[in-house]
Structure formats: structure tokens, C-alpha cells
Specification:
Elements lengths: L3 H11 L4 E2 L2 H6 L13 E3 L4 H14 L3 E4 L16 E4 L6 E5 L4 E4 L5 H9 L3 E2 L12 H7 L6 H4 L6 E7 L5 E5 L11 H5 L8 E8 L1 E2 L3 E9 L2 H13 L6 E6 H11 L9 E9 L1 H17 L4 E4 L3 H12 L1 H6 L4 E4 L9 H14 L4 E6 L4 E8 L4 H20 L24 H14 L12
Parallel strand pairs: 2-4, 3-4
Antiparallel strand pairs: 1-2, 5-6, 6-10, 7-11, 8-9, 8-10, 12-14, 12-15, 13-14, 13-17, 16-18, 17-18
This protein binds flavin-adenine dinucleotide.
Length: 457
């Protein structure tokens, strides 16, 4: 609980109506998309950079932890206030401040929901490429702080590739501005890159300038079904090896599609082991030629059925099937854990087969989905952490999955970050000197350790 004098000071900044410390609110902000819970002492809804700066000054003076939070959809415990403190909820600081198509950028507040930004940009024939499956409820602040990805990041790159500048409130309450609105800007250190992916541990992002891209002229969306998972994964490797970079190449295994079908009834066939959704976009002639080449490759790798979306509705329902996976599976058990290990694309077949073997060996119910073109593999595990025997099997399997990824020259996370969930595995990929440098950076920016404490640094 916050001391009365601190509470009074904070209320003077945000007013009574944007300050909460009742039990219901504290419970609601004690968890996110992972499985750990810990209550904050208060939840505040700032509306402006100046307010965040004033809040940080008070937190610094009284040594109170501060945890930035957007949609709370991260899957690694990144917003869980493990040491209590103040949650800054940015969902009310959600204005799109500028859309500039001439200079190809937009300026947004951190609480803007990704899908709302896409909607506004589409009105002027532009888009922001990063498209996490959570885009309907995750915020740009959260996307930036996690360096989020999504299906079309295969062709377009991840959130970090689109950040031109930021306004950041430091642990001391000082406000800094990184970058600018220029596509080219090499004036000094690229500080935006430091804050991107820092998971709220280095500063609080209160404004972001993002590069935007014109909408493509046309799309072709192919779906291919296979009798075995190895051929499904080999197709991904072959498409890229032939120099075709689709917009997205998403893989789903039979366990996933059958669970989705059982629970959402989207009309997916059941008798196959692997499914690929491959989309290409661009000018019509190039897109048609790529789609034909992809269909040929899929066939040569044993696809038993190759179909193409014939309308935008068909295209949307395919993407709905893919993007509903986490939501559907998470309704089937008290807990859902989505792992995020990533390998070079040449190792995708080995990784997919290896992950399925690990899950089966530990008798774990899980589907496998993957942003396969990026080597980003998501085993979606449904479990109950209260069943300690089962949870210990899940933890053992997760450790084996990370070990396998590293053996294949991969890494712990392609897009979900580290948070609490993967903290213990960091030494697998970051050596002591590198971890020490990260601690030095953290101490330089947040000497009292107030920003999102207990997380990966
Ligand atoms: C169904 C589902 C599907 C998903 N699909 C994807 C996917 O395809 N790709 C992907 O990358 N992720 C995906 N995720 C994970 C998650 O949605 C992303 O990590 C997203 O970027 C989190 O955004 P958020 O607004 O919910 O952030 P939160 O969960 O609220 O916060 C995430 C992290 O960012 C920090 N943070 C938030 N706002 C700020 C700020 N203003 N300043 C500083 N730090 C801040 C927090 O402290 C925390 O560490 C998915 C999650 C779900 C539940």
C-alpha cells in the first residue's frame, strides 16, 4: 500500500478519477498473458508526457517501482508488478497525433491500439506493417517495448524497423526525445533502438514517431495442406531458398487446427498433419507470378491440397483461423503458455519436428503454430499451473525447447520478449560480458532500479 502522502501527491497529478487502489483494480492489474500474479499498490491512467514525468519524479523521490502497461497482452509476465508499486496504464493516452503521407510517418501516443492505427492509416491508403495477432487489443507502446512482430514481418520487418523517434520519460522524470521524423537520421547514438524491446525497464515511452508504408496494390493468399509436418516445413525453406519473400508464411499443425475447429468451427479440414498459409503482396503481375511459383513448390514438396482465397472474405477467414489460435486454445484450460523460440529458417523443419517430439514425450497438450518464414515457432501449451506435476512437465519441456533452439543456432524469443518467463534462460544465449553490459546500461538509466523491477535485467 502506498503511504498517504505519496498517494496524495499522485492524486494531485492525475486527479481522483484516474487513480485507483481498490482491491478489484489491484487484482485486475496483478497479471497479464503469462501465469504469474503479483499486485501493484496503485494503478494510474496518465494522459500526457508531463504527467508521466511528474509521477516519475515522485516515484524516484520515494523509491516506488513503476510498471508501464498497455493492453497487458504480453505473454512473458512483463507487466506483473513483482515488487508492487505503480502501474501506469496507457490505454487512455491513445491519440493519433499526426498522419503525414507526404513524409511517410505518423506520430502516436503509446496507448493507441495497433488495429485502430491500421484503420486510420487505411483511410489514406497506408499501413503500419507490424501486425501481431494481438493487434485488436495490444498498444503501440507495448509493441515498441516488446519489439513485436507478426505474420507479415517476414517481408516487412518488425516494429523496431519502423521507429523513427520517441519521447521517453527517464527514471529521474527527465524527458528526452530520440530520433526525429526523418527516414534517414544518424545524428548521434540510435537511442530509439535502446528503448525498443527494453520491456519498460529503461524508460517510459510517451510518444512514438513511426514510418508508414503505402498499402499494396494486390494480394494472393494460398493455403496448402500436407500429410506430414516435415514436408510442410521443408516447403517454407524451399520458397525462401528460391528467392521468393512472401508477405507471410504461417504454419499450423493438426493438433492446432483440430482444436480451433472443435471450438470455433471455422470450416478447416481435419485430415492433414500440416497447413501453410502463404500470402504475397505487391503489383498484380509480380504477385501472380510469385503465387504460381509457390503453388508449384508446395506441390513438389507433397502438398495434398493447394487452394487459394478467391475473395477478400475468404482471405479474411483464413487469417481469422490463424489469428484465433491463442484465443481459442486459452479457453480450453486455466492457463495457456505460448513459447517463442526462434531458429534460422534453414532449421525450421528440425525445430518443428523436435518441438513436437518434446511435447509428446512429456505428454503435454499443445498445438504448434509458427511464423515459419521467420523461424519463429510458437508451441501453444494448454495447462493448469495448480497441477504441480503437470506444470513441472511443462517447465521441463520449455527448457528442452530453448536448449534445442540454441543448439540449432536459434534464440529464446523472436517477438514476445523475456519478461519473467525466460529470465532464467538468458545465459543460454547471452554470455557474462554481454549480460554485464546490459546491467551497466540499466544502472546508468535507472540507478535505483525502479522501472519494471525483477524483469530480465
Ligand atoms: C492472443 C495473443 C496473440 C499475440 N500475438 C503476438 C504476435 O503475433 N506477435 C507478437 O510480437 N506478440 C504477440 N502477442 C504478445 C503481445 O500482444 C505483444 O507483446 C504486444 O506487443 C504487447 O502489447 P501490450 O500493449 O499488450 O503491452 P503490455 O503487455 O501491456 O506490455 C508489454 C511490455 O511493454 C512494456 N510497456 C508497455 N507500454 C509501455 C510504455 N508506454 N513505455 C515503456 N514500456 C511499456 C510493459 O512494461 C511490458 O514490459 C500476442 C499476445 C496474445 C495474447
Amino acid at each position: 500500500m502506498l503511504k498517504t502522502n505519496i498517494k496524495k501527491q499522485l492524486m494531485a497529478i492525475v486527479g481522483q478519477e484516474r487513480f485507483f487502489d481498490d482491491d478489484e483494480t489491484l487484482v485486475a492489474y496483478s497479471y497479464d498473458g503469462y501465469v504469474v500474479e503479483s499486485r501493484p499498490d496503485a494503478v494510474l491512467f496518465p494522459l500526457a508526457t508531463e504527467e508521466v514525468s511528474e509521477i516519475m519524479k515522485i516515484a524516484d523521490q520515494h523509491r516506488v517501482p513503476v510498471i508501464a502497461r498497455g493492453g497487458g497482452s504480453n505473454l512473458t509476465g512483463g507487466t506483473v508488478p513483482v515488487e508492487g508499486g505503480i502501474v501506469l496504464n496507457f490505454t487512455k493516452m491513445n491519440r493519433i497525433l499526426e498522419v503525414n503521407t507526404g513524409d511517410r510517418f505518423t506520430v502516436v501516443q503509446p496507448g493507441v491500439i495497433n488495429a485502430n492505427l491500421q484503420k486510420e492509416l487505411s483511410k489514406v491508403n497506408y499501413f503500419f506493417p507490424p501486425d501481431p495477432s494481438s493487434m485488436g487489443f495490444s498498444t503501440i507502446g507495448g509493441n515498441v517495448a516488446e519489439n513485436a512482430g507478426g505474420p507479415r514481418c517476414l517481408k516487412y520487418g518488425v516494429t523496431g524497423d519502423y521507429i523513427l523517434g520517441m519521447v521517453v520519460v527517464l527514471a529521474s522524470g527527465k524527458v528526452i526525445r530520440t530520433g526525429s521524423c526523418n527516414v534517414k537520421d544518424v545524428t548521434g547514438y540510435r537511442l530509439s533502438s535502446l528503448f525498443c524491446g527494453s520491456e519498460g525497464t529503461l524508460g517510459i515511452i510517451t510518444e512514438v514517431t513511426l514510418r508508414i508504408v503505402p498499402l499494396p496494390e494486390s494480394y494472393r493468399t494460398i493455403v496448402a495442406y500436407y500429410n506430414n509436418l516435415a514436408d510442410t516445413a521443408e516447403t517454407v525453406k524451399a520458397v525462401l531458398a528460391q528467392g521468393i519473400i512472401p508477405t507471410a508464411m504461417e504454419l499450423m499443425d493438426k493438433v492446432t487446427t483440430n482444436l480451433v475447429e472443435d471450438n470455433a468451427g471455422l470450416g478447416l479440414p481435419r485430415e492433414f498433419e500440416g497447413m501453410l498459409i502463404i500470402e504475397v503482396d505487391g503489383v498484380s503481375e509480380a504477385v501472380s507470378s510469385q503465387a504460381e511459383k509457390i503453388s508449384k513448390i508446395a506441390k513438389s514438396f507433397g502438398a495434398i491440397e493447394i487452394l487459394e482465397a478467391k475473395s477478400s472474405q475468404e482471405r479474411e477467414s483464413l487469417w481469422k483461423a490463424r489469428k484465433s489460435v491463442h484465443g481459442v486454445l486459452s479457453k480450453l484450460a486455466p492457463n495457456c503458455v505460448t513459447e517463442d523460440a526462434t531458429v534460422p529458417v534453414s532449421k525450421v523443419p528440425e525445430m518443428i519436428i523436435g518441438v513436437r517430439a518434446i511435447l509428446d514425450r512429456h505428454n503435454i497438450t499443445a498445438g504448434i503454430v509458427a511464423h515459419a518464414g521467420d523461424g519463429n515457432i510458437h508451441p501453444v501449451i494448454i495447462t493448469d499451473t495448480r497441477d504441480t506435476e503437470e506444470w513441472s512437465r511443462v517447465e521441463t519441456a520449455a527448457a528442452e525447447i530453448f536448449k534445442l533452439a540454441v543448439e540449432l543456432r536459434g534464440t529464446l524469443s523472436g517477438e514476445h520478449g523475456i519478461g519473467l518467463a525466460k529470465k532464467q534462460f538468458l545465459p543460454l544465449v547471452l554470455d557474462e560480458n554481454t549480460r554485464e553490459l546490459m546491467s551497466v546500461v540499466k544502472k546508468a538509466l535507472d540507478p535505483a532500479g525502479l522501472l519494471n523491477p525483477g524483469k530480465f535485467v
